[in-house]
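sry for the spam today, last one i promise. C-alpha cells for design, 202 residues
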C-alpha cells in the first residue's frame, strides 16, 4: 500500500494543478476553478472505487481532500498563468502527464489487489486515469482530451498492460512500478514533443 499511497497523492497533486490551469484558461470564477480542480483530481478515483464496490478514498480518508485543498491554495498563491494557450505550456503538460501516469498506476494496483484479470486491470487503469479529466471537460463543454489529444489515453492503456505483465510474471515490486511510471512519463513527454498521434479516419 505504500507505493499506492505515494502514487495516489502524486496523482491528486498533479491533477489538482492541471484542473486548476484548465479553470483559469476557461476564465471560470473561483468556485468554477475549485470544481474543475476537484473533478480532475478526485473524479477518476471515485469512479475506480465505485467499480470496485468500495467506499471511495475521497470519502473515507482525509488525505485526498487535504492534498487537493493545499494544492489549490498554493496554485492560487502562485497563479500567474493568463494565456489562452495555457494548455500548451509545459507546466500543464508535465502536471497532467504525472497525474495521468500516477492514477493509471493506482487503478492497476487496486485491480491487481482485487484479482481482476488482464482486461480488468487495463480498463480500471484507464478509467482511473481519464475519468476525472473527462468529467471536467464535459462540465466546461469541450471535447474530452482523451478523445483528441496526442497519445494521451494510449499511455494509460500502456501502463495497465505493463503492470499486468509484471503481475503475470510475478516480478511486481516498488522498484519495478517506479520504473514503469518513469518510463511512461518519459514516453508521454516525448510523444507530446514529437506530436505523435494515433491514426485518424478521414
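last one done:
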Amino acid at each position: 500500500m505504500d507505493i499506492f499511497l505515494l502514487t495516489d497523492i502524486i496523482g491528486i497533486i498533479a491533477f489538482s494543478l492541471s484542473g486548476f490551469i484548465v479553470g483559469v484558461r476557461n476564465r471560470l470564477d473561483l468556485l468554477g476553478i475549485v470544481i474543475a480542480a476537484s473533478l480532475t483530481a478526485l473524479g477518476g478515483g471515485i469512479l475506480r472505487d465505485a467499480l470496485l464496490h468500495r467506499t471511495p478514498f475521497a470519502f473515507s480518508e482525509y488525505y485526498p481532500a487535504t492534498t487537493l485543498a493545499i494544492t489549490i491554495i498554493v496554485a492560487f498563491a502562485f497563479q500567474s498563468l493568463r494565456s489562452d494557450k495555457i494548455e500548451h505550456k509545459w507546466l500543464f503538460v508535465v502536471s497532467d502527464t504525472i497525474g495521468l501516469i500516477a492514477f493509471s498506476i493506482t487503478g492497476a494496483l487496486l485491480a491487481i489487489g482485487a484479482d481482476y484479470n488482464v482486461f480488468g486491470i487495463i480498463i480500471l487503469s484507464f478509467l482511473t486515469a481519464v475519468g476525472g479529466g473527462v468529467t471536467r471537460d464535459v462540465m466546461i463543454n469541450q471535447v474530452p482530451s482523451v478523445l483528441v489529444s496526442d497519445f494521451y489515453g494510449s499511455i494509460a492503456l500502456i501502463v495497465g498492460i505493463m503492470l499486468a505483465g509484471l503481475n503475470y510474471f510475478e516480478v511486481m515490486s516498488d522498484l519495478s512500478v517506479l520504473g514503469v511510471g518513469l518510463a511512461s512519463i518519459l514516453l508521454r513527454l516525448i510523444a507530446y514533443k514529437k506530436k505523435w498521434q494515433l491514426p485518424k479516419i478521414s
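The chain has a mean pLDDT of 90. ok im logging off now
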